[in-house]
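Continuing the series of single-chain predictions for the mutant panel. This is the parent chain; the variants come on the following pages.
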Amino acid sequence: MKKKNDLSSVDKTELLALVGSLQNKKVVVIGDVMLDVYIRGAVARISPEAPIPVVEINEDDRKMPGGAANVAANITALGGRSAIIGTVGMDMAGKELVRELKKNKVDTTGILALADRPTTEKTRVIAHTQQVVRIDREVKSALTDSQQDQVIQKALKAVRDADAVIFEDYNKGLLTPKVIRKIIAYAKAHKKITAVDPKFHNFFEFKGVTVLKPNMKEITEALGPEVDGETFETIGFKVMKELGCKSVVLTRSEHGMALFEAGQPIRTIPTVAREVYDVSGAGDTVIATLTLALTAGATLLQAATLANYAAGIEVEKLGVATVSAEELSQRLLEEMNR
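Parent structure:
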């Protein structure tokens, strides 16, 4: 099938109206939550102990929801309602993460506090605007069978009155095959939109979902050597066929997105980022905006285009960040007047 660049064919007036339709749609986000910590300072010298920069801290640490938690925060920033299903440790990082989620108006009753594993925490040290080092504290092993049952119970309760479910997998042990299958089966039985931001471990467990949103690295790692030398076009359709999903939105970094949908030609959307400051969290913004737009009745092309504009705003910010409905509306108005 011939691919087509469809960005110019999408009516921005319709997209602007769509932003207003996102209000109060409920999305349940299930996946690996984490606390993102940013330590900022300046470098004026090299350490005498080793050839490394000395970062002198000049402002308070910033602590923000990361991973699946950032997806949930993006949902509420856009005017939707979000509930998060995930685990934290019985530690200070877990308390801080829940506190930050509540600040972002995210329903945290689906958070399960566990004594046998810490809260996933990613600390980035930034000098001026350059990230110097990232420090990860995490346990990646799968949850116990009993813990998985508790997650499933919380998820099913939250999904009952939701419009959509997002699976946000960072390979940290929450989204096991058992958890994935049970929740997908329930969501499909109750006609909920299901969206997935996958990683390679459980890639082939997400069968029959509404939309799968991998990036090129994730999709090639999952498919392995069998796709060596193949183009993104053939890879996208291969994934659709193997998983039996309704659509695939393949994100391609600076090349934008490619959309695969049954009965449609491949459609490509170029990136609309004006200035790339930090790509952290861009994928979270895309899956949140894409899914929320689908709950409001958008076509896949409209939803992906809106998500593309939202990601263009997000990468202009430092660190993982949310994009508000107001920011998105303003960007669309600016594009309409160009």
